[in-house]
Amino acid sequence: MTSCIFCKIVKGEIPSAKLYEDDSTMSFLDINPINPGHALVIPKNHYPTILDVDEEDLKKTIIATKIVAKALKDALSCDGINILQNNFEAAGQLIYHFHIHVIPRFEGDGLKVWSGVPYKEGAMEDIHGKILSAMRK
Ligand SMILES: [Zn+2]
């Protein structure tokens, strides 16, 4: 997929601040970081979302994510690390080449990744049943 910016980074057609690379994966700094050191980890093969990723590439990408997370912890002495992965526009996906965000977090950095809201009466049972039904397909 030649128009994909991440495929171009893999091919070296677009420069990146590369952090890690192996035969199947690559990591580089996000150019619009949530916090300094915010990194992305991608499989070199092009897959639009997590629903498309080959399982071997997925395993290798999460292992590379751990390597990058450890390096961020050591290099930045961050207090925490968020691993985020967005799929489709409604979830904030901007680049349709599967990628995992590795975000260093610091006490008091003010970022709020999510806020949970308790289920209304019976709603958890309903959604639980729907998801289990989908898994049986
Ligand atoms: Zn791509």
The average pLDDT value, as a whole number, equals 95
What's the quaternary structure here?
A: single chain
How large a portion of the residues is in β-strands, by DSSP E?
15-25%
| CATH C-level | Alpha Beta
* Count of the separate structural domains: 1
**Chemical compounds bound to the protein:** zinc ion
CATH level-3 fold name: HIT family, subunit A
Task: Sum up the overall morphology in one term.
Answer: globular
Q: Specify the number of helices.
A: 3
- What strand order characterises the main sheet? 1-2-3-5-4
Portion in helices:
25-40%
H/E series, N to C? HEEEHEEH
Distance between the termini: 31 Å
Q: CATH homologous superfamily, by name? A: HIT-like
